[in-house]
Amino acid sequence: MPSCGMRRSASTIVDGIAWVGIFALIAASLGVVLVLGFPGVLILGLLTALTCARAELSERTPTWGQAVFEARAARGRSPEERAAADEAVARATSPLRYYRACGLALIVAGLLGTAWQIWGTG
């Protein structure tokens, strides 16, 4: 059976996973609004933003496991190797920045919605 000849790159696969994550956040926020109201959206945004910040920090500074030993071994590398490693870390953490921004947007929406419910409906 002949193949279609198209191979998906890693970037395309990561982008697809990112979109699945975004749609999951949207679905979760709609469900949370139905159950908890806008304070739930605020909580969802806080959890999303904090999770992304934590993941980004742990990617830059290993705190446990084999990554600690790899970080110690990385001190003796050439500047070119360190630059390549820094670029790889930046590439890996760029989706986290986007998700963190989505979390911050959920926080703002939760705050505005809560304020509207409290003061807008009187």
Which geometry do the CA atoms define? elongated
Largest sheet descriptor:
none
* Secondary-structure content class: mainly alpha
Instruction: Extract low-pLDDT stretches.
Output: none
The first-to-last residue Cα distance is 67 Å
Oligomer: single chain
If helices are DSSP runs of H or I spanning 4 or more residues, what is the number of helices? 4
Mean pLDDT: 78
Order of helices and strands: HHHH
Number of strands: 0
Rg, Cα atoms, Å? 20 Å
Measured as a percent range, the helix fraction is over 70%
Percent of residues in β-strands: under 5%
Verbal overview:
With 122 residues, this protein is an all-alpha fold. Helices cover 82% and strands 0% of the residues. It is built from four helices and no strands. The model has no long low-confidence stretch (mean pLDDT 78).
Name some characteristics of this structure.
about 80% helix; elongated; mainly alpha; 4 helices; about 120 residues
Question: Which secondary structure elements does this structure contain, and how are they paired or packed?
Answer:
Blueprint: H1 10-36, H2 38-60, H3 66-73, H4 79-120
State the gist of this model:
This protein is an all-alpha fold and 122 residues long.
